[in-house]
């Protein structure tokens, strides 16, 4: 397993990490992902550790805390061998302080997560969404106090816009608070919006990407093909409305290219889609999930080899879309190359 520094921090994380959203799954979304109990989760953790995957990502909102509880049970007795990443800020109830990133909410959320995980500290806490109603100074000062108390080791964000990340980093520098070193983002061959602003920001500011849904919300599994109906057992029947949309022609164009590369090198479509991400700037780790041992071993096969430059170009071309304003004008005018974001 390849290990990479997480942004500008000194923490090294595996190129692949495990998403525990399938642990204890319940409800229309998380129940469709999977519902591994503690025994099944222990086996999946065993396989991950054998392969060098020691970072496990979860969130308090995953099945209303059940994911954290099952993960905690699965790693019991080997806390020092793993890195735990969890997230908070999304609603955990209907009360006025059950969502967001206020001081009250963050302190309670961290204490609750520590109990569910059965640990004294969290290696990486990420804010699951930007809280526009709480001053950023309040958020950062609270995270600073939790780091100083030894309850958090590193902090990051998820699903923030560029200005939200940059303003937070600027205030952290002004007041001497810990900086965000990670941004958990949606990024895939059918979802490359991350590249327009967040990737250049990550390069410039030392914020590493932890990629969620690398298979385009289950669309790049190799089971969806041009001209064929959606497989009867596909979870997309129940979950498509929760995830990022993808136009059919864009999806089929990418799948066609993935099929071509798969035939060339004898790898599966998901393995190629994940390996492509591992070649991208700022990507520290790609989060993979699995409902069973077979799926996990398939995903682990995405490392230990690399796509050729020609294969990468083929996938780049198939997945390319026109950049939105203001990025598009700068990219098309060669005379203004100095204004363009870093090459990606």
What does this structure look like?
With 344 residues, this protein is an alpha/beta fold. The chain has a single domain, classed as TIM Barrel (Alpha-Beta Barrel). The protein is built from 13 helices and ten strands. It has helices at 27-33, 38-50, 66-74, 103-117, 136-148, 162-175, 198-205, 236-239, 248-265, 269-278, 293-300, 309-319, 327-332, and strands at 3-5, 12-14, 16-19, 55-57, 83-88, 122-127, 152-158, 182-186, 208-212, 283-288. An eight-stranded parallel barrel has the order 3-4-5-6-7-8-9-10, surrounded by five helices. Helix 2 (38-50) packs across helix 3 (66-74), helix 2 runs parallel beside helix 11 (293-300) and helix 3 packs across helix 4 (103-117). The radius of gyration is 20 Å and the shape is globular. The chain starts with a strand and ends in a 12-residue tail after the last helix. The model is unreliable at 336-341 (pLDDT under 50).
Overall body shape: globular
Averaged pLDDT, please?
90
The CATH topology is given as TIM Barrel
Largest sheet: 8 strands, parallel, barrel
CATH superfamily: NADP-dependent oxidoreductase domain
Pfam families: Aldo_ket_red (PF00248)
Keywords: Oxidoreductase
Protein name: Aldo/keto reductase
Organism: Mesorhizobium temperatum
